[in-house]
Amino acid sequence: MFTKITAQTFSDALFSMKGISKKTVEEHLKLYQGYVNKYNEINEKLGLLTDDDYTKANQVFSTLRELKVELSFAWGGVVNHEIYFAHLGGKGGLPTGDLLKQIEKDFGSYDGYKKDLKASGIAARGWVWTGWNMREKRLFNYVGDSQNTYLAWEIKPILALDTYEHAYFIDYGVNRGSYIDAFLENVNWDAVGANFKK
Q1: Which of 94, 141, 165, 191 is the most buried (most CB within 10 A)?
Q2: pLDDT tens, 31-75?
Q3: Cα separation of 176 and 171, whole Å?
Q4: Where are the domains of the chain?
Q5: CATH topology of domain 97-197
């Protein structure tokens, strides 16, 4: 049985970040709330499907297919943004402890990680996740072109970088690279480290 989800609240530090304006964050949080609302709405519509809707399921088009595909997009929008906002509002700098050791092992250095994350962010159309590959036991930066594309199996994201234009256009126009630099200056590495520890 479906239970409605509600939007999470995040640190007030989001509204006073260096290089990412309060206006950008306010508008971005409205988009996140929209994903929460649509996730709930789609689940309600799935609950109203008739036997006829199930009988007419089809890979080209059907009500069931449309709802299931868009549910995955809405859910991706919810989860991706919750990871993203939960580790923003920090002081940047360097990660510490086991996370830094793993980054140095898998990327050669923190600078190597930053270079790969930034290039991945410029190449991505929607998202980049630093994820823990549970099978290979390593960190890797994964690219996604949408909320629900290129999802990788046996990967646990520990950091999410939103590269959709809404995340930076107010502040940087088309200069995504400067936004990624600002993002890194505002990461709460303790929060990312806690994700890694899990």
Answers
A1: 141
A2: 999 999 999 999 999 999 999 999 999 999 999 999 999 999 999
A3: 10
A4: 21-86, 97-197
A5: minor pseudopilin epsh fold (3.55.40)
